[in-house]
Design goal:
436 residues; Rossmann fold; 4 domains; six-stranded mixed β-sheet; four-stranded parallel β-sheet
């Protein structure tokens, strides 16, 4: 399908032409031309009248199947543009939804995409009804007023049904999540801009072969796998990629998927180190905005500069330095900035940062574990290492272990016939200073 793209930049918002072209390519479109304009939004056409006339001439000459705007169009603007151009007009978010529809494979992903599409369609149908009452057009998709109103009722009914189905999926996921917590797993969520290499990183960590392509929005459903993090029980989850100004209706539709981020113990924000600094900066700030919308900005976070195999070492170091300076003010919860290559398996810095972040997690508390001589001390210590952090071991008639242990795992540990005493914060600090 052949399209003409339109980008309007303003003082407050500058859109990436490269990203827009990548979105069009991901949707399977042949791009005939890209028209750009620098001005504030025109209330009727989004672009100015002069640029609209230029666009009309391009449409007449090139005969595209669609005109795609990189900007968000109001229903009124979309209708006015269609009336002037007499060709289908869609905006950035409708383009994103088209890509989602192509990528959705699981039942959950298909339901989420359908819900987002219906939410996007509601204001368009309302605008069609308003226009019909004004005698301005034949109706939405050629339907009359009665048919359009009936279609709106159908949309709302279908949205309600989808939400109920997604609620069941969410409930099932909650059961699995609680089971993981009961087993003492550390939950790590991979987040970041689309096409940053999150799926490739999951494959490298977990030794899996999850689909990973050099294209936008390959992942629309969460994938969780176990991976080795020293002796810890750890799970890593790949999540749907972010994009600048992610609209509320997509966040709502993918709530059950994005919820994995809010429930994670550690967030790994993956960035593409091979991109220019301006793009790295834009994408990290866009990702942080999404995390704020999800109410997950205070989670312990590690920034992973991925694809360092594609850049010089000095370039990667400079981007890490600039990121550190940028994030000092906007993301104080960042524990480390690491350089990795998921493709080549160069993950040493990431593993080290993850292990160093574990003792600081809120789920850990300081305990003294007294192992009687009748019990296998080695087995107990091994169990503690899987669900916590051993700080100090004192051998004697009874073995005494000072450790940071997940509070939810204490019940399991007591089954091993040991005595457990909670340490206060001063004891915890002392053990961290004097322990291993």
């Amino acid at each position: 399908m052949r399209v003409i793209g339109v980008i309007r930049n303003s003082r407050r918002e500058r859109l990436s032409r490269e990203e827009f072209e990548e979105l069009l390519e991901s949707a399977g479109y042949e791009v005939l031309a890209i028209l750009e304009q620098n001005r504030e939004e025109h209330p009727r056409y989004n672009i100015g009248r002069g640029k609209l006339e230029e666009l009309k001439r391009l449409v007449e000459d090139l005969r595209p199947d669609k005109v795609v705007f990189a900007n968000k169009l109001t229903p009124s603007q979309a209708y006015n543009l269609w009336k002037e151009l007499r060709v289908d007009v869609i905006d950035r978010w409708q383009l994103v939804l088209e890509i989602f529809e192509k990528r959705a494979h699981s039942k959950e992903a298909k339901l989420q995409v359908e819900l987002a599409s219906l939410q996007y369609e509601v204001p368009l149908v309302k605008e069609a009804i308003r226009r019909i009452k004004l005698g301005d057009r034949a109706g939405f998709k050629g339907m009359g007023e009665y048919q359009t109103q009936q279609y709106l009722k159908h949309i709302r009914y279908r949205m309600g049904k989808i939400r109920k189905e997604l609620e069941k999926v969410r409930a099932d996921r909650e059961v699995k999540r609680k089971r993981r917590e009961e087993m003492g797993f550390i939950l790590v969520a991979l987040v970041g801009y689309t096409n940053a290499g999150k799926s490739t990183l999951l494959n490298a960590l977990a030794g899996e072969e999850v689909e990973a392509r050099q294209q936008m929005f390959t992942t629309l459903a969460t994938t969780t796998r176990r991976f080795k993090l020293g002796r810890k029980r750890a799970l890593v989850t790949d999540t749907v990629g972010f994009i600048d100004n992610l609209p509320p209706f997509i966040v709502e539709a993918f709530h059950s998927t994005l919820e994995e981020i809010t429930r994670a113990d550690i967030i790994v924000l993956v960035l593409d180190a091979s991109e220019p600094w301006a793009e790295v900066r834009r994408k990290v700030l866009a990702s942080l905005r999404v995390l704020r919308e999800l109410k997950a900005p205070d989670k312990p976070m590690i920034i992973a500069l991925n694809k360092i195999d594609l850049v010089e070492e000095e370039d990667a170091e400079e981007k890490a330095r600039l990121l550190g300076k940028l994030l000092e003010e906007v993301a104080p919860n960042v524990r480390a900035i690491v350089k990795i290559s998921a493709k080549e398996g160069r993950l040493e810095e990431l593993y080290r940062a993850l292990e160093e972040s574990i003792p600081e997690l809120p789920k850990y508390r300081a305990f003294r574990v007294v192992i009687p001589p009748t019990e296998d001390a080695g087995k107990v210590i091994s169990t503690i290492e899987a669900i916590g952090e051993v700080l100090d071991v004192q051998y004697g008639e009874s073995t005494v272990v000072h450790a940071l242990i997940q509070t939810g795992m204490i019940k399991e540990l007591t089954k091993m016939n040991v005595r457990i005493e909670h340490l206060n914060e001063s004891d915890k600090v002392e053990q961290l200073e004097n322990g291993k």
